[in-house]
Task: structure prediction
Amino acid sequence: MADINGDCRNARAEALIAQSVAPVRFQTDKECRVIAGRWNSTFTGNTIYDAADIDIDHVVPLRWAWSRGAKTWDREKRVQFANDQANLLAVEASLNRQKGAKGLDEWLPPKNQCQYILRFLRIKKVYGLELSSKESIAYEKIEADYCG
Result:
């Protein structure tokens, strides 16, 4: 993840700071690396205090996006997508690793599925990522089943 604005905080640190519901603690006075805070995982509802227990999930995974149009993007758009705070969630590392590069038809979080589905679809739309016709049908059904 990149430090887009040159303030020594990469996209991970920016996400941790933005999503903590309490003031964060940094490793040093330079305030570059977040080590503690209070995060409510949208995947489970659990509260996490140690930044080491958190992965920053790409709601729309980078590898998933690649085969649905991202491979044609220029470098600038790829960097923007990979660091877009709307596409980044602070969640349990174990669940993020379980998810990997899966789309909605292969993985959903244990809680808040509708919220996750709608966020995924919004990001997919913003970046113009294309689903196959089979995926489109599956994703419409998933949205209807979980979001009504």
